[in-house]
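User: Predict the structure for this protein chain, please.
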Amino acid sequence: MSIPSPPAPSTKNSMESKVPDILTSLDANVGSRNFLGRYVGSIKEPDGLMMLYGAEHPALVVQIGWGESWSRIQKDRTLWFEGSNGGVKILILIHLSNEADQIKGDLELMSFDKGVALTQRKVIWPIPDHKEDPFILLGDIYNNQLPPECDPTTRLSLEMSALRVIALQDLDTMLLTNGS
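Assistant: Here is the predicted structure, written as structure tokens:
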């Protein structure tokens, strides 16, 4: 993820001192057990997350499904949003499959604004002609914890070209590990 246009130097310095870089805030392999409602007792380990200081649930969750059905991945989405009672602000779902020896993939980025789901859907593979990157607003992640000198409308772009490179590297590793 990257900020598409660099902020002015004085703004950048104040942002760096107040807001952790999104990449260094991402963590993985941490199981979540604090689900509420009908999800009490559920345990879910995201593929990636961003946790804000003192929060009970991650603000941002990444779920990747390789060979899983889209409906199974959507059940994960429901668990994170409903089970966290609004604690999870942003969910990135990535669905990858191999159909007729061709990799296919889709990305769904969901955020909630005043209880309304905002969704951006993008094709990962085959690479589309229209290559606009999805984005997250800084204010959507940090909510009321964003320092006042930071602009909540700052866009953090999820670069699809970088995602494709990472996914291919992971796929190569999986194939080597499985001996395929």
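Residues 9-178 form one domain.
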